[in-house]
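Task 17 of the worksheet. Students: predict the tertiary structure of the chain below and write it out as structure tokens. Keep your answer in the requested format; marks are given for formatting as well as content.
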Amino acid sequence: MSDLKPIYFKDIQRFNQIWIWIFILLICGFFWYWFITQVLLRTPLGREPVSDAVVIIFWLIFGMGFPLLFLLTRLVIEVRADALYICFFPFHVSFKKFPYEKIKKFLIKWLAQQSRSERKDKEEFERIKKDLMAN
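Model answer:
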């Protein structure tokens, strides 16, 4: 990937809001409690407890995997001369390229649709379209 243009701007976003982590830790805490109680302490939970194998599978998915997924997840946006590059790790391992020409075409279509649906001033729409086409 040595043919990439220099980076003008780079933004990295993560799940670091406290309300998200409270929600995740509550879910995670329940599965840890279930795992410790039934598998380690040998005290079945409920009237008809599931097998230890099922508890271990759910603990691995929701007690370990779910919080780990949110720890690793990040959105990286890079602004380069030729396009926007976006990577949503771990779902995208490499960057996805969005050329500026495609963004301009979409923006013009979106503005046209907005001007029809909201009855905006047509002169303003034409001015914005002209500015977009000039760049």
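Marker's comment: Residues 47 and 68 are 31 Å apart (CA to CA). The chain has a mean pLDDT of 87.
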